[in-house]
Amino acid sequence: MTTLTQSVPVSGTSRSSLPFHLGAGADVLVGLELALFGPDVARLTMPALDTLLGADPGSVLRVLGLALIVFAIDTVLVARSHGRLGRLRAWIANANLATAALGALLLLAAHAALSPIGIAAVAAICVALAVIGAWQRRNS
Predict the structure, then answer these.
(1) Per-residue pLDDT tens for 67-107?
(2) How far apart, in whole angstroms, are the C-alpha atoms of residue 70 and residue 16?
(3) How many CB atoms lie within 10 A of CB 108?
(4) Where are the domains of the chain?
(5) pTM, 2 dp
(6) Which residue from 80, 101, 100, 79 is spatially nearest to 90, judged by alpha carbons?
(7) How far apart (Å, rounded) are the C-alpha atoms in residues 17 and 71?
């Protein structure tokens, strides 16, 4: 065993990888949706935007979808490891909580650029990320 995957004693509490696997599953589902249907999602959620970060919104969402899939793979690898790599579980939880906070700020700052469907989607994703991130933090 390498030092990245060797067992490390856990102090007193049992750590579950379930919240990490559920979070990764959700990331894959959303990532696939964005990667495959980015332009359609952009038209539904941000109909008034011609560009997003200087590019076509559909293309930006496709790249975001691919990034989510990579993050999901990383999440599963970290959740399954008990060595040094397993110590990054708190980082995964904090990344989900930070993303929820950034989504809430997006709603406050740019809600006029979103359609009602977009506002509802961002709000639902923020709530889901906050719940999963808090659950992950308790199990990291």
Answers:
(1) 999 999 999 999 998 888 888 999 999 999 999 999 999 99
(2) 22
(3) 8
(4) 18-138
(5) 0.83
(6) 79
(7) 16
What residues form DSSP beta bridges with 55?
A: 52
Cα 117 from Cα 123, distance rounded (Å): 10
Q: What is the Cα–Cα distance from 96 to 90, expressed in whole angstroms? A: 10
Show the 3-state SS of the chain.
CCCCCCCCCCCCCCCCCHHHHHHHHHHHHHHHHHHHHHHHHHHHHCCCCCCECCECHHHHHHHHHHHHHHHHHHHHHHHHCCCCHHHHHHHHHHHHHHHHHHHHHHHHHHHHHCCHHHHHHHHHHHHHHHHHHHHHHHCC
90 CA to centre of own chain: 14
CA angle 23, 110, 120 (to 5 degrees): 50
